Protein 1
Amino acid sequence: MSTGPRLVEVRQNVLKQNDLLARALRRRFRAAGVYVVSLVSSPGAGKTTFLEKTLSLLRRGRGLRVAALVGDLATDNDAARLARAGVPVRQITTGTVCHLDAEMVGRALEGWDLAVLDILFIENVGNLVCPALFDLGEAVRIVLASVTEGADKPAKYPHMFSRADVVLVSKTDLLPYVDFDVGRHAADVRQLSPGARLMQVSAVTGDGMQAWYDWLQLSLPG
Amino acid sequence: MSTGPRLVEVRQNVLKQNDLLARALRRRFRAAGVYVVSLVSSPGAGKTTFLEKTLSLLRRGRGLRVAALVGDLATDNDAARLARAGVPVRQITTGTVCHLDAEMVGRALEGWDLAVLDILFIENVGNLVCPALFDLGEAVRIVLASVTEGADKPAKYPHMFSRADVVLVSKTDLLPYVDFDVGRHAADVRQLSPGARLMQVSAVTGDGMQAWYDWLQLSLPG
């Protein structure tokens, strides 16, 4: 296929451009004093439910000023769900594009005063492949891995897991009903991203959520 | 981002090239009398377990000559699992590429006598976005949708569901433990792909699998 090499070249240019824009975003976030946390996972791993609970608790329970950007191919369902937490939410609709990039994030932030925020969450498109290579200027990247997906996903999607700062094993309330080898999953995550923090959460039962809030609060700069 | 329009143009060329190659593959499959079934889903929706049972049953129980091509970013775990069914299996490793394309399929088939096969399955990379636009020359495209992912996935990934010939609602053994609105899911699938066949299966309990084998066998040409 003669278009192959040209596509690779264009992709490399796109990634290089993205890295430059992400670096500028990161400087901007630091200057504004906002801690930016990105979330990525397979479709249906529970990002939105998890984020809805997190936004609500951080605002009401811990008095933090939080906001979210939400990426989706279509619909603003997730943005509508997150807005119920009573925090500012903006939607990024990507159409057929399989990931967010730094330019989309920059555009979505236009006119937003970041200095009034403590934490900005960025929920990526549900996809374990494409978002891996695109830096969004975040301080920390979180990969949600649902127990229903099986323990083999780190080995099968190594680019994503090797770039994770935190791996949240989600839907742990379903552990009794599925075949998920917690030890194998943890070992594979540690091999791909030796410094990554591993936590288990269930947004449904609340198990592990306090430990997550504590970890996040302790990670905030200053 | 100045690379934007150029990327779109290159992408359109890639899709156009892919369509030509897929058309040639489809002619080749028809001429060889092999029925080609592609499978796509989110990571961890159960494609491999489902396919493992299907290959084994079709070969042993119904005397069909079946084979499989398996796409993955990394590892040949799935190909090794499928080979246990005692049928020919070939692996396509895509690296960072988020989907199979017709060229990869054509290359993987080199030296393979398709005329001795009744059904060839192609298991795509686990991804609800990128594989949507790439025709692989298949006769029928199957989307697996796990009940653990939630009923909102058709609306959120419309490109994939609108191109489905069959939607298999998988992991129905977990229905008692998750919040999955079967009616809403079915209605959204019907709106996106009015002719699509909807079936429910659990590869773990075997529920719905006989109906799936029957449907597949009745779909075979000739």
Protein 2
Amino acid sequence: MIRLLSVIGGSEASEEEYRMAEEVGRLAARRGYGIVCGGRGGVMEAVCRGAKSVGGLTVGILPGHTPNEANPWVDVAIPTGMGEARNALVVSAGEAVIAIGGEYGTLSEIALALKMGKKVVGLRSWELCKNGGKLVGGITKADSPRDAVALALEEAR
Amino acid sequence: MIRLLSVIGGSEASEEEYRMAEEVGRLAARRGYGIVCGGRGGVMEAVCRGAKSVGGLTVGILPGHTPNEANPWVDVAIPTGMGEARNALVVSAGEAVIAIGGEYGTLSEIALALKMGKKVVGLRSWELCKNGGKLVGGITKADSPRDAVALALEEAR
Amino acid sequence: MIRLLSVIGGSEASEEEYRMAEEVGRLAARRGYGIVCGGRGGVMEAVCRGAKSVGGLTVGILPGHTPNEANPWVDVAIPTGMGEARNALVVSAGEAVIAIGGEYGTLSEIALALKMGKKVVGLRSWELCKNGGKLVGGITKADSPRDAVALALEEAR
Amino acid sequence: MIRLLSVIGGSEASEEEYRMAEEVGRLAARRGYGIVCGGRGGVMEAVCRGAKSVGGLTVGILPGHTPNEANPWVDVAIPTGMGEARNALVVSAGEAVIAIGGEYGTLSEIALALKMGKKVVGLRSWELCKNGGKLVGGITKADSPRDAVALALEEAR
């Protein structure tokens, strides 16, 4: 079985997020991990592109009914037709999760992953707070793609 | 069609959360709204119980395969067998969402609701932060059950 | 908890199917059952209409993201955004299943219900065959709406 | 993108079904297709085993929450936690579908695939009937694994 890392983030990425996601893809692929993501643009495209640049395998779990909405660096496209309910599958398929930037869809994936007991590493992503901005644990913060991949994979299965 | 309000929160509730959820159920039912929730214990039980105490209708969208896991105040039990992926359905079914306390499952529902463009009102619940504990918008904070129901329903459909 | 009967069938119904579905809705509601269906037109509309004509409760589990696609006789609309994957939920929610006419979507629901161990009663609906048209068991054949409701509810929970 | 063929069938397979499924896996992989299936035993195991014997890629979309329930010849395991609702994903991911033997779960996949407009080829599998055992179209009947793969792939995308 190919070991998988879930990488999540927005379908629109800043230049910095795009570069970070590509680097995460490259580093994870070099460690022998396949990438599983939402299969679309932005961070999802970048991480697939990075992984493919060093021969990694990429899996895209898509919200719609057709593989055509996958970005060009997806090897295995799984169209679900389930919309946002597919987010649970993206994080369920990886041993650990790296979140890069991201909006509400990414936040839902972070929460679902934590609920499943997976390690979630955040790179310029959401933080969890309660009681007037008091940070609460859950997301492991990383400073760089290298740091993120190391943290995500250190406890992986 | 019966108008529905989604109420989300943990399957274990503190005494205060339980009382707040019951009150939310009562107030929403008096406004003519049915309650849709995850159908289990804690906040979900309390909100159903409150709604039933004044003759409201309650819908429980359950993670497992059987209606038997519903709390005794659920009128319409929808067993999904989908686990956490059912969270998307709980928030999709209501016109607006009230979150009371809650853990990661609740956070995933908050995020999915915001992604769907629904109003989310929080009562002692999660806050959304970025960049070292800086609060970002999204969740409307309420001080009391009365406040929460008023805020949730003021813009409902 | 309100006991539910799943009624499945095509979104386009012949006149005879429409009349049969209305009658099934009326009879089930008089027996105190709520109706759960796919919430749309044709057989789904007819069964809801029949149930509402005698004060029954109707639940529509919809394929799309919005309650607006429900027929006018749906009381509780559950938009899933899951497309055809919502079919599993329609049959999972009822104690037994009545199939009226129907195309491939209905066949998938029949199969899922049988897989879940539910009783499935067919009214002018699919038959199951193997080995060159040899009928195999599974679906209980009914001759009339009255017969279908009696057969479906005789062993219900 | 790797082109995928969906292969469906029971988690318990007769010796003949097992051999046929292995042969289907080998032939499809030689044609450059990856296999997508439910990831478990019986026909699903056999088709993965056949594909791997000639270097093909195999994807298993699993009903439970953990990759551990995958058979040993699955390369990419997607645990869905969705139970039978995952059947829609298995057929949605392939360009065409081959059904080998199978029980009600397989029948639901056949129906969902036909509903999605996919070509479904049957090898000793279900037949579709109405009106007292009259065969109706939908499933293309194959006589051998070779025949099945040829029929399935001739019109693929």
Protein 3
Amino acid sequence: MPRYCITIEYDGTPFVGWQVQADGETVQGSLVRAIEAFCGVAVQVRGAGRTDAGVHARGQVAHFDLSRDWDPFRVAEAVNFHLRPSPIAVIGCRVVPDAFDARFSAIRRHYLYRILPRRAPAVLEANRVWRVSQALDHTAMDEAAQVLVGQHDFTTFRAAGCQAKSPIKTLDRLAVIARDGEIHVAATARSFLHNQVRSMVGCLKAVGEGKWTCSDLIAARDACDRSACAAVAPAAGLYLTQVDYPDAATERVT
Amino acid sequence: MPRYCITIEYDGTPFVGWQVQADGETVQGSLVRAIEAFCGVAVQVRGAGRTDAGVHARGQVAHFDLSRDWDPFRVAEAVNFHLRPSPIAVIGCRVVPDAFDARFSAIRRHYLYRILPRRAPAVLEANRVWRVSQALDHTAMDEAAQVLVGQHDFTTFRAAGCQAKSPIKTLDRLAVIARDGEIHVAATARSFLHNQVRSMVGCLKAVGEGKWTCSDLIAARDACDRSACAAVAPAAGLYLTQVDYPDAATERVT
């Protein structure tokens, strides 16, 4: 039973999220169907991050076991064939050790959030960015972002339904960068609470508009109270861009 | 009758092109309807470049006359309101001298062509790039591109139906750049022949794959024969990014 690790890109717009649910199309469900159509037997697919409805991925990672030794290139080609016309693509595929787990072996997750600050609606980037009418001070946003880096109780930035055991997380990086007329927020951590990136971006937008100061963000963080959070940023601007693993987890001993 | 100059972004996918035609939705037609819905009288809208079906714009320019002096900000807001849900957005609006003509006053047009070289289908960038299965040597493409820069007879790179009086054009810039896993071809000239950018990109792709050498591209250019052109690149990867005007054409004497 060789274990395969795939890297996946998807447009989250038509999905109710990553995880299989009672109702609605999911990314996980679409992958399971495509893999089963190719190999003819039931498979389980496990992802590194359970992205919400409308959230995109450029580098989601998942694993599954096949009953025989297929060439990884053939697996990727066949799964992509059966995924059509769903907006999901396998962009990488390799055989990994049996102990590899896309979720539990991950040591870092990277997210990108794209904001388009302009009056006109987003058309070329519809469903790909958060279009905000106000000009935003990205330098002030980046300065403020640094108060969230490090180990904190992120209760303020955590969705009501979050199932994590602890609200204490270590944020490795939170950077706000101006690029091609957009504002990009890049976030890196071992793991995130449910809605944490979108909650942090919502607060940073308040800073960028001049509604919040850096002190307001510190106060919101220290309140450890969901009601201290600014309006949560919409799903469409968020991308799971990369998941990191230790070399030992992915290198197959042959 | 003040004259307004607007800068427009659009997703070309659902349109049969810029120019109003007997059948099918056009960008020009959608703009005319939106402006008329706002001002209540008939208008004519003239664009700088007549983009083909499926070709996008980040910086198309057009002009029209209104019967009274509206604030340009209000004009942009109102036209954007009436354009919905068409994927067209007015991203800039100003009053210009009566002699301004979006097409004839233009001194330079800039196009971008995006190629995504990978096996997996384009999903996040579906209808936004040309996905090619082969790896492409962008350095070889950029070197070869330079043989098209300057004044040449571009008959090889001209669509059969092209209405330009002469096939002789001066190409100011043709640069091939690797960016974020894509290959971008940037082209600048006072004006282009019909399908010229897509024809040149089709030939550069042949160079990138190693099917054509630089000498093959020179031979194709010098043949001045449409049948010497490689397969024309598809519309979806092409963007009209910017149109330049002399300051005197757009500065209003008040």
